[in-house]
UniProtKB/TrEMBL annotation, chains A, C:
PANTHER family: PYRUVATE DEHYDROGENASE E1 COMPONENT BETA SUBUNIT (PTHR43257), PYRUVATE DEHYDROGENASE E1 COMPONENT SUBUNIT BETA (PTHR43257:SF2). This is Transketolase C-terminal domain-containing protein. CDD domains: TPP_PYR_E1-PDHc-beta_like. Its cofactor is thiamine diphosphate.
From TrEMBL, chains B, D:
It holds the Pfam family E1_dh. It comes from Microbacterium psychrotolerans. PANTHER family: PYRUVATE DEHYDROGENASE E1 COMPONENT SUBUNIT ALPHA (PTHR11516:SF60), PYRUVATE DEHYDROGENASE E1 COMPONENT, ALPHA SUBUNIT BACTERIAL AND ORGANELLAR (PTHR11516). Gene3D superfamilies: 3.40.50.970. InterPro entries: DH_E1 (IPR001017), PDH_E1_Alpha_Subunit (IPR050642), THDP-binding (IPR029061). Residues 12-301 form the Dehydrogenase E1 component domain. Its cofactor is thiamine diphosphate. Coiled coil: none annotated. It comes from the Bacteria. Keywords: Oxidoreductase, Thiamine pyrophosphate. This is Thiamine pyrophosphate-dependent dehydrogenase E1 component subunit alpha.
Length: 342, 318, 342, 318
């Protein structure tokens, strides 16, 4: 059993610690991407790693196909690459290497080869960011069998889920969020055993409605839960953490108790992962007290001006409204049938 | 127009760009502008020189996120740019584009692009269309040194060359891709030599001299209009500031900032004008006049209304 | 009013006719892609067009970013490009040009610029095709506001929907299917007015269950409907045709009558467009007689051997089974509540 | 081994590839094999020559969908290939890869790839890994002439060059991308000259001569193992058949098929061996022996069980 150490770390520092540990404990780990080595990353996340681990941490040309394809190829020769795609939006110039290449390696070779790569990226809007630097694209990755996708939101998860991903022998996309990197430092446990993929986490227990969320929307969701709590609505907030595989058991168990389901995410509602969760619950045939509600970004591109972006990206207020709609407006239907709302 | 008048005009436009960037720096420091902002201080001669050689009533430029200078050189009013960065309804894209993604087709400015390299095939496609309508239009794709390693740029250059499309590829070689020197990312750092691979002419140009830039672009435009196809022009320049506002530039070698400050285009152009008989007070007056103009534009933009939120869903589809 | 002409055409010939008409009637139309001009397309779909329309129909290097980006750029200068991406799988090398570029043009410029491009592609499995030539990727495109997506399955729709797409001033992806190109010739009406986007089509009326489908799965769905009809189950089959915008009104109206919903598509079930349809119905709070069922490809890569592929791709038999499950097993719950199955 | 013995060995392996492709053509004609099949008839000298210069216990090739020849040259048993195309459980990838996407890493055959150009960064990544483990492994990325216009290939070459990675880029220039001649898709049809843009050596090689191929690859391998980085080898060749089985080749100029039949590598190699004293009957015996071998392999594969469907969901994840 490795020794665990408690240390104070921001989300960025937690990632840095996980990368450092991976480089230290597994000699086959390589870390590369644009600006990750000498400069230490545009967000400072990989700071100091090249100094410590030398050329196993290196800078790449602005060549996402070479970065992702390079990781896939290095994996075939025994390396375990942790690459950075600076913004999830940029993965679209090279998605082939994840979808047509990495995802197929193990299946087609019947396990003779593998693609033990980890793609660190970050996504979502931040004040002033343009439409090409603001998308939430987890639904694209999550549709692809053969890939794994997680979205850590706390420093502890940033550390744990990244290590789980690196240790995993299959291609995993770790979607971080730049608005979280330099947030508060909190105590995290480092050095413990690397966990298997362990699904969702209940962030707040409640009995009236299940609110499923992930990524930075979690914070808006928890705020919304606090707001409606004062109105007597007791919300259970679940952070999915892993988008593929999707831990629907935790969702179903919660919805079975609460009878209501809201899903909030920053991605566009249409075709977002919220649809998959709603579909699984609907397929399962649970008795719901009110119709499922989804809170996501409407059909729009993301405008750069912060106040315009705020008008479209899910906020605590919009989530709270949706919860009220589900819990209050439909209270009269609380007899086990599915009600229509207007 | 005499040479001197022309150079004076270049200086005025370059000063306008520089002053705009300085104003933006102020407004970003006070968080009136938020988010990532990529300034072009030091690279102004490229924009001013190139635009002087274009006919912007029909030609078009396709720059990157580092596009304020191109926009000004195209004639986009600084007020409309500042208003854009401030999220005002008077912004050139109504606040939707922000610093890194606004567009102003009325001025021949066919949009910034925040995906490295993506503008190259788009400009090439515009040039393609121009070969069908007899308009003689020429498209300019401009991007950084680092962008040359992006697959889309390669595809665009081959496509343009094989069809002899009227597109000019301008590489703004400022030595860095974000925080990483280009010399570490390519083996042949004479980037213009990549043109040979595609069968088009390539040349290095002093990107700190608007006259040299203008001459090179004029020649390329003339070639393109005659149906002779694309050219790759590598403009040697430098950025005097960080990749984005807030970049502490710890990656710069000792002394580099001081060295480049001496060769930057505005300093050089002023020296040249003094050689041609202009005086320091005249130059200072110009500087002041431009600065006042930008101050006024900023004041006006700050006074404008924020872009309305009730139309934020509009224009997704026709 | 243009004169309409009835002619016999296969699916491929219908597409060819639509392209010919677009080139004839709109001088700003360009047609380009790999092997489309001199060779007339790898599937022969664009045969003869270059001979007829000269250099407005031309061959492209194997450069999907140049093809898609070229179309976007040409659109900014007034051309209306109809480009071919030979397989939807290949769009992944250049998805940036659709998602980060084409989809943004109109929105960011507030309508000053547009991206009136049409991307013809085809997808899905055909006997012997490998995992990199077999995917059904509509969910990826459908998640992107600013894009439009349709999937014609009949010669008439192949003609009509393609013209609608070309006439549209917004970027549209027309997903064809190579197994349909050289099928039976049928009478199609050509030359009539170009239609606006007009949503789903009921292919078979029925009262017991709504079966929503699209793409080539439609034929398996209709077969399944015939099979279960003999067992007394009356299936309404809806061909969505347009995936974005999604005509959920037609689906809701049907489900309101039938009380049951099955969704069948060739794409992977997880994160497929079926999830979005299920979610919209669940959100709408219709009273269902039995839980929604989805029939899609399970979490797997597509194996090349035809019998292996057949084991994972939705078949009439699997669809029929799902319908039986929904209609028969849950008959006891036909009292208006949502029942659990499993 | 004498030169003559070596050439005899080349011929035997080239014949094995050709006979396999001919057998596959038969099986496709009768629909025992279904789907798209890309044959390499005429290009065999590249595979046989290159593999003779590699140490396949550690080196690896990364070919395309047109990969049967590479597989045989790497030593993959024809039976395992035929079984793969027939969807048998004994197929080298259990029927999951099919003609265009099987893999056989035990033989140094690191998989076909059906996305044009995608193998280049993957091979480069393998070479990258080799620089860390002291294995001295070399990766060979092979792709067609048309693939050079794909962005991923460009990115791979620049990356390989700047890090001096032990990867050899082989362009199988057979003159066509599917149905379109390469001469219409590039302006400079000496494709090896693209190497200069990246700062690596490039050379043209007679791709119809296994001895020339072998020598060029041996030199590249030696260079790569010494840490001197990548090389781009343009192998001039031709395919004697369509892009895929069923391609009617209406795009071929009149007389081309007849002309290339005269310079194709097997005909040439046989002439050479006759010059070295071998006799026609000896050559015919070899041909017959190889054909019998392939017939036996096909018969065996046809007798094998279909790949089981009950394991079709396995191996998606570890
Ligand atoms: C496809 C893509 N990859 C990465 C980035 C992140 N990025 C933004 S600017 C930049 C550096 C570009 O360098 P260069 O092309 O030299 O232009 P410069 O910024 O110096 O003007 C990078 C890597 C991006 N925007 N798009
Ligand atoms: C990214 C991508 N685009 C297009 C295709 C379709 N395609 C398959 S083979 C081929 C031609 C390739 O030509 P070349 O590189 O010369 O190789 P060859 O087939 O001649 O061996 C094309 C266009 C593909 N598989 N992948
Ligand atoms: Mg630069
Ligand atoms: Mg070829």
């Amino acid at each position: 059993m490795p020794d665990t150490v408690i240390k104070r770390a921001s989300y960025a520092e937690a990632i840095n610690a996980a990368l450092g540990r991976a480089l230290r404990e597994r000699s086959e780990v390589l870390v590369f991407g644009e600006d990750v080595a000498l400069p230490g990353g545009v967000f400072g996340v990989t700071k100091g790693l090249q100094r410590q681990f030398g050329d196993r941490v290196f800078d790449m040309p602005i060549s996402e196909s070479a970065i992702l394809g390079g990781a896939v190829g290095a994996g075939l020769f025994g390396a375990r690459s942790v690459v950075e795609i600076m913004w999830a939006d940029f993965s679209l110039v090279a998605l082939d290497q994840l979808v047509n290449q990495a995802a197929n390696v193990r299946y087609i070779s019947r396990g003779m080869l593998a693609s033990p790569i980890t793609v660190r990226t970050q996504q979502g809007n931040a004040p002033g960011a343009c439409a090409q630097h603001s998308q939430s694209l987890e639904a694209l990755f999550a549709h692809i069998p053969g890939l794994q996708v997680c979205m850590p939101t706390t420093p502890q998860d940033a550390y744990d889920l990244l290590l789980t991903s690196i240790w995993s022998d299959d291609p995993t996309i770790v979607i971080e969020n730049r608005t979280l990197y330099h947030g508060d430092k909190v105590d995290i446990t480092t050095g413990g055993p690397v966990q298997p993929i362990d699904g969702a986490q209940v962030r707040r227990q409640g009995s009236d409605i299940t609110l499923v969320t992930w990524g930075s929307t979690q914070f808006a969701a928890l705020d919304a839960a606090s707001v409606v709590a004062r109105e007597g609505i007791d919300v259970e907030v679940i952070d999915m953490r892993w988008i593929r595989p999707l831990d629907h058991e935790t969702v179903l168990a919660s919805v079975e108790r609460t009878g209501r389901l809201a899903i909030a995410h920053e991605a566009h509602t249409t075709g977002g992962v919220g649809a998959e969760i709603a579909a699984r619950v609907a397929e399962h045939g649970l008795r719901l007290t009110s119709p499922i509600v989804r809170i996501g970004t409407p059909d729009v591109r993301i405008p750069a001006a912060p106040h315009l972006a705020q008008a479209v990206i899910p906020s605590a207020a919009r989530i709270a409204d949706a919860i009220r709609r589900a819990c209050v407006l439909n209270a009269s239907f609380a007899g086990g049938t599915v009600a229509s709302h207007g | 127009m005499s040479d001197e008048e022309q150079i004076w005009g270049h200086l005025e436009r370059m000063r306008r760009i520089r002053s705009l960037e300085e104003k933006i720096t102020e407004l970003r420091a006070t968080n009136q502008i938020v988010g990532s902002v990529h300034l072009c201080n030091g690279q102004e001669a490229i924009y001013v020189g190139a635009c002087a050689a274009l006919d912007l009533t029909r030609d078009a430029v396709f720059p990157t996120y580092r596009g304020h200078g191109w926009a000004v050189a195209c004639g986009v009013p600084p007020h409309a740019i500042l208003a854009e960065l401030l999220g005002r309804s008077t912004g050139i894209s109504g606040g939707r584009g922000g610093s890194a993604y606004f567009t102003a087709p009325d001025y021949g400015f066919y949009g910034e692009n925040s995906i490295v390299g993506a503008g190259a095939p788009i400009a090439t496609g515009a040039a393609l269309a121009a070969t069908f309508d007899g308009s003689g239009r020429v498209a300019v794709a401009s991007f950084g040194d680092g962008a040359l390693n992006q697959g889309a740029v390669h595809e665009a250059m081959n496509f343009a060359a094989v069809r002899s499309l009227p597109v000019i590829f301008i590489v703004e070689n400022n030595g860095y891709s974000e925080l990483t020197p280009i010399s570490a990312m390519v083996k042949v750092d004479q980037l213009f030599r990549r043109a040979n691979a595609y069968g088009m002419p390539g040349a290095r140009v002093d990107g700190n001299d608007p006259v040299a830039v203008s001459a090179a672009v004029a020649q390329a435009v003339e070639r393109a209009r005659r149906g002779k196809g694309p050219v790759l022009l590598e403009m040697i320049t430098q950025r005097l500031v960080g990749h984005y506002i807030g970049d502490v530039q710890h990656y710069r070698p000792e002394g580099e900032l001081a060295a480049i400050a001496k060769v930057e285009p505005i300093v050089r152009l002023e020296q040249r004008l003094i050689g041609l008989g202009r005086t320091r007070p005249e130059l200072d007056d110009l500087h002041t006049a431009v600065r006042n103009e930008i101050d006024d534009a900023a004041a006006a933009a700050l006074g404008d209304q924020l872009a309305p939120t009730n139309t934020v869903l509009e224009h997704l589809y026709a």
